[in-house]
Known about the structure:
It is a single chain. It is built from 20 helices and nine strands. The chain is mainly alpha-helical. The strands form three sheets. It has a three-stranded antiparallel β-sheet with strand order 1-5-6. A three-stranded antiparallel β-sheet has the order 3-2-4. A three-stranded mixed β-sheet has the order 7-9-8. A hairpin with a 4-residue loop joins strand 8 (269-276) and strand 9 (281-285). Zinc ion (ZN) is lined by residues 302, 306, 404, 407.
Amino acid sequence: MKRQFLDNFxxxxxxxxxxxxxxxxxxxxDETQIESLLRKPWTLDNLTFSDRIWRDKDxxxxxxxxxxxxxxxxxxxxxxxxxxxxxxxxTSKSNAAxxxxxxxxxxxxxxxxxxxxxxxVELIRILATLDKKTSEICRKMDGIVIRIDDYKVGVxxxxxxxWCRSTTVPHFxxxxxxxxxxxxxxxxxxxxxxxxxxxxxxxxxxxxxxSNLQEMDSxxxxxxxxxxxxxxxxxxxxxxxxxRFNNGTNKAKEVFNRFVPNNSVSTxxxxxxxxxxxxxxxxxxxxxxxxxxRGSGTTFFHEQGHLIDYAxxxxxxxxxxxxxxxxxxxxxxxxxxxxxxxxxxxxxAYRILGEVMRGEDRExxxxxxxxxxxxxxxxxxxxxxxxxxxxxxxxxxxILPSTEAFAHLFEAQFDxxxxxxxQQYFPETIKKFDDILGGLIQ
Length: 442
Ligand SMILES: [Zn+2]
């Protein structure tokens, strides 16, 4: 079959795969299957044949079916089909053109059903071309979502009338998190946002090279499902989160998938970011986190760290374990800083560490800065004043530094550079945290 015609079928698949950033070979779409579909009776009698101008309806239907099926399969340009038909049926070109275009749209719509079923798309949305010429019926149908089981060309899906320009697209309900399932056996890949249709087709339809694409494992798939269950996440932010997750340590990935439920974020437009233990959900701002100076997506993983901490409070001693290693690391850090600076006063160490935390690496050191802020707190004030910290009065009275550290340590599992600086300042705590993560997934 000719490329142009097949594009009608591959485009919805491309829309689905690129929409979810996942791709797989679609050998499942069988061209002979489409051809046999085309050979079934498909003419939209009451829509296009009601006019009296057609003297012999049976002859017309047969002729049209033969011409159109052959024409579409061989890729004959529609103007040639129109001329042939007008000659054979002794009718005007405009009548023939109306039939050819409308019936072609109907054929595509019929074959598209097979594509949607192949992709396990359950909901389909009607998409009208809205302009001054849009018909009354298409205006009414625009945006309507139907179930695949109600798919009926000419009734629930376009073409609704001659010259109909409406079409259909797969529909995904944000809150339901429906997604296309992948064929058993084949490999699944991560499809980057910038991949356009021609490149996608070369890769997944024509069996092109996939060495530059990242293979998607079940862990990543499980993560994307959790992300897709959260409403209000833009495609760009979604991709950032997926890439960040992908860079994570294996234990942290497993812990995330085990303990983070669907719909973990209750609002993505909050002022600030916090985890509510009462609601067991996160409030944050997706737009702010996308342009986060500390790294796009760090707040998302930090707040998920809080969620995971609270989800395990009843069955794990992880907070008290972190508490003791943090104090050990902190005392060593103060002592080493004094030794290096050749001073006997702790206040010098506090000042030096504060300066480093406010220095040019302050974004990279934001977690270290906050943890030191908490560990050096005397209640309402902290001895080590970096750039990042929980500055609100009394914060460190109500929240243990180890609680905040848990979220920082978890977030850093998805960012090697941030993990490396935490390792430098809190080596024993990093070791302990690795044990804790291991314990959570046992
Ligand atoms: Zn926090």
